[in-house]
Design brief:
The chain is an alpha/beta fold. It folds into 2 domains: 2-127 and 162-248 and 492-554, 3-Layer(aba) Sandwich (Rossmann fold), CATH 3.40.50; 288-458, no CATH class. The chain has helices spanning 93-105, 126-134, 137-145, 172-186, 190-196, 204-214, 252-256, 264-273, 288-303, 311-314, 319-329, 333-338, 350-358, 397-403, 451-459, 472-479, 529-532, 544-554, and strands at 2-4, 19-24, 33-41, 57-65, 77-82, 110-115, 197-202, 234-238, 347-348, 373-376, 380-382, 407-409, 416-421, 501-506, 520-522. It has a 10-stranded mixed beta sheet with strand order 1-2-3-4-6-5-7-8-14-15, sandwiched between helices. It has a 3-stranded mixed beta sheet with strand order 9-13-10. The protein has a two-stranded antiparallel ribbon with strand order 11-12. Helix 6 links the parallel strand 7 and strand 8 (234-238). Helix 2 (126-134) packs antiparallel against helix 3. The two termini are 36 Å apart.
């Protein structure tokens, strides 16, 4: 999958072996965009304590046009993107390719840098990459669950809280400094950075960009060439804002880390003692194992989309996986409580299994939703768990619009449930499944992401789509930013407004909760769709998020 290549002359500061760049082979339909993975050695301070050697490196996926300049400094513009919560560099693949391609059509040769946060160094993609190379998803499952050796390596298991102690030092300050250090090493000339770099991100990435813009990196507020806003010529926000609050998720940090209500000191002591988990996770749906499970599901759907899925049977049973399946596939509270029928009682194609995990008509968590099509092949009914589908009738119309109608297959031991891709919803052969509360579950106007390309993005990259070990300190620091010692470097409060900003919002995502004049709003989009949507939409028009971002970069 990966082939070493001399892609571009590295910056002078990196010619001492502290930088690598490796070509990434891709089956994307956007064939005129070149992708590589770049790794730059930027060690953590010794005070962070023991950590794996690979965690002293920063990584990103570099996308550029095949006809563009080889050196980043010669590009017309460089877009640098921070991923959202629980997300990695691979999540930007669709947007990055579409934007670089459209910019080239406009006569601009731009680059898109999809950043991995430092914590992504803890992931082990060996099984996914081996399964992809062999065309066998079982190889990946055996590596992660059955101690199968791959290239002389066996899976060490998901890291425990004691094994990620150094993450208690990776918070807001370290994260924005990592971005600064990477930019300085890759583009040493500050004038070039100011003229050519545009900083932004998806979801939580908008908040991180805001703090980056305000940060003073040399410790002397009187000098501003080092200030975050002087490293960028513009900002872009993907279903988020360049702001210190998380759009549409007020109270979210406190909900995930309840101890933040007790103050920064309590959180710090809790992290040091290990009482507060150093990597954010939940018992199901959102944790290290389920994030990796998404990559496995993506790999299966990429290799054999119409093949019979054995994801729920070949992956060994466990509390985490079983509870996740029950949450996502139970049609109502009695079914969830009884635990029957289980997902193992249904027959799905691999594409349908992936759709059930991430489609907005199935996945209840807004920040994990994409609009990738709909179920097909058998009876489909309302999914009334964890929220009912008749919220309109309960006087909760706003919430109904935000959550949408959920659906689930209803015939265990029955037909093979298939997946109707986004561009086949509303086709002449579409059964047009309808909710018992009135109206269709979905329409062509609400479907925007190709499930095949989502599967590819989940399984193709050396830098993952997801983030398995999200540092608790990072989200706690954002919630506690006003406390002394947390965001002391964010002194340039005018930095957020110092550069032009493009807000790109999902019409049915988090951005829909706070529309503002000048926003580019993509109708029908969910939170993930702003970075995964297909280059051509169901109305035959170009994908609007990448189109506007390419035009903005071209200015």
């Amino acid at each position: 999958m990966l082939a070493a290549a001399a892609l571009a002359a590295p910056p002078a500061a990196a010619r001492d072996g502290a930088r690598t760049e490796t070509a990434v082979a891709s089956t994307s339909p956007v064939t005129d965009v070149v992708e590589s993975v770049v790794r730059v050695k930027v060690p953590l301070p010794e005070s962070a304590g023991p950590r794996p050697e690979e965690c002293d490196w920063l990584s990103y996926l570099r996308y550029r046009h095949a006809d563009g300049p080889a050196a980043s400094a010669d590009a017309d513009r460089v877009l640098v993107a921070q991923p959202g919560i629980f997300a990695g560099a691979g999540s930007f693949d669709g947007l990055a390719r579409n934007t670089v391609h459209k910019a080239a059509a406009n006569g601009d040769h731009i680059e898109f840098w999809a950043l991995d946060r430092r914590s992504n160094c803890l992931e082990d993609p060996t099984g996914i990459q081996a399964g992809l190379a062999a065309g066998d998803v079982h190889l990946a499952v055996d590596y992660y669950y059955r101690q199968r050796e791959v290239d002389g390596r066996t899976f060490a298991g998901y890291r425990t809280n004691d094994q990620v102690k150094w993450l208690q030092h990776v918070g807001l300050e370290q994260t924005v400094r990592d971005q600064y250090d990477l930019l300085v090493r890759e583009l040493p000339d500050q004038a070039v950075r100011k003229r050519k770099v545009m900083c932004g991100g998806h979801s939580l990435g908008g908040v991180l960009t805001a703090y980056f813009a305000m940060w003073d990196f040399d410790g002397n507020p009187a000098t501003t060439r080092d200030a975050g806003y002087e490293q960028c010529g513009g900002y872009f926000a993907l279903d988020t804002r360049i702001d210190t609050g998380i759009l549409g998720m007020e109270g979210f940090p406190a909900d995930m880390v309840p101890l933040v209500e007790l103050g920064a000191g309590v959180v710090r002591v809790g992290l040091e003692a290990g009482v507060v988990p150093r990597a954010l996770s939940a018992p199901a749906v959102v944790n290290t194992e389920t994030m990796n499970l998404l990559a496995i599901a993506g790999l299966a759907a990429r290799l054999s989309p119409e093949g019979l899925s054995d994801l729920a049977t070949y992956v060994p049973s466990g509390f985490n996986t079983d509870t996740t399946y029950r949450l996502l596939f139970a049609k109502d509270y009695p079914t969830f409580a009884a635990g029957t029928p289980t997902v193992r009682d249904f027959r799905f194609t691999n594409a349908a299994a992936l759709g059930g995990l991430l489609d907005d008509n199935s996945q209840p968590l807004a920040f994990m939703q994409a609009s990738v099509g709909f179920w097909d092949g058998g009876k489909v009914v309302d999914k009334e768990f964890p929220a009912p589908n008749n919220l309109d009738g309960l006087g909760l119309g706003g919430l109904a619009t935000l959550l949408g109608k959920k659906a689930v297959p209803d015939t265990p031991d029955g037909p093979l449930y298939t997946w109707r891709n986004f561009d086949l919803v509303g086709a002449p052969d579409d059964p047009g499944y309808e909710s018992e509360h009135g109206g269709p579950f979905t329409t062509a106007a609400d479907e925007v992401t190709d499930i095949g390309q989502l599967a590819r993005s989940l399984s193709e990259h050396p830098l993952d789509f997801t983030e398995h070990y999200f540092p608790t300190k990072l989200i706690a620091d954002i919630a506690l930013a006003d406390a002394p010692g947390i965001a002391d470097g964010a002194v340039h409060t005018g930095g957020i407004g110092a550069n032009p900003t493009l807000n790109l919002e999902a019409g049915d995502g988090l951005g829909a909760r706070d529309p503002r004049p000048g926003d580019v709003v993509a109708p029908g989009y969910q939170h993930l769709d702003v970075i995964t949507a297909s280059a051509v939409q169901n109305n035959g028009r170009p994908e609007p998020i990448s189109q506007h971002l390419a035009a903005f970069a071209g200015r």
